[in-house]
Design brief:
By secondary structure, the chain is α/β, with parallel strands linked by helices. The chain has a domain of 160 residues: Rossmann fold. 40% of the residues lie in helices and 18% in strands. The strands form 3 sheets. The chain has a 7-stranded parallel sheet with strand order 3-2-1-4-5-6-9, sandwiched between helices. A two-stranded parallel ribbon has the order 7-11. Helix 1 crosses helix 6, helix 3 packs parallel to helix 4 and helix 7 packs parallel to helix 9. The protein is globular, with a radius of gyration of 19 Å.
Length: 261
Amino acid sequence: MKVLVTGATGGLGRVVLPRLRADGFAVRATSRRPRTGAEAEWTVVDLATGAGLAEAVTGVEAVLHLASLPGGGRRTHQVDVLGTRRLAVAAGRAGVGHLLHVSIVGVDRVPFPYYRHKLAAERVIAEGLVPWSVLRATQFHPFLDRLLTMSGRLGPVIGDRALLVQPVDPGEVAARLSARLSAGPLGDIEEYGGPQVLRFDEAAYAWRAARGSRRPLLPVRLPGRLGRALRAGGLTTAATVTGSRTWADHLAATYGGTDRR
């Protein structure tokens, strides 16, 4: 099967490409700038304008749509919503048999501007003419790692200690996506998360210990609807099929440390 992967140069895309190749897929990958590499047949596409889309979808049997522009403003709308619509229309005209879109657990529950665009993109996929699937994933381990690093730039690690997260390994998400491509269109939304739900302070203490850091945790309670949604588990899923690699596994592999509280 030949698969077109949008957003192939992003964090998940860089993990997905070798996984698909290892699983026997022929891979065409999109980038906004010319690229070369043995991991895929590269093609230039700009979702914000639609340039290159018709050529990119020609001759592929499935599309794995990873491309996204986090933010929440006009540019995000151009890429995530209108760009997804352009992709779905082009794929339909080309006779593509499966459009698999990657989204985020909580887009329907957490009042965050970027999530509104992701939810709108899901609706575009579901209302299109191409048989479809949506996989919503929880937060990737590297994303949570970067978030904690950024929150501690001024010294203490700042965050709402009761916020709930469910970090997942991007390699396991890539494997799930490969399996879904092999199985075919679901015509529904599937959620996939990590093996553990953690409070923010639990994740932060483990991260701090693995890095050998003495930075204190400065609790700041997020206000309003957003804070209530995050503390209520808006970013987590009760889906029973989960990844197996834990936050502690990620920390040990990244920093060689263990939680020494």
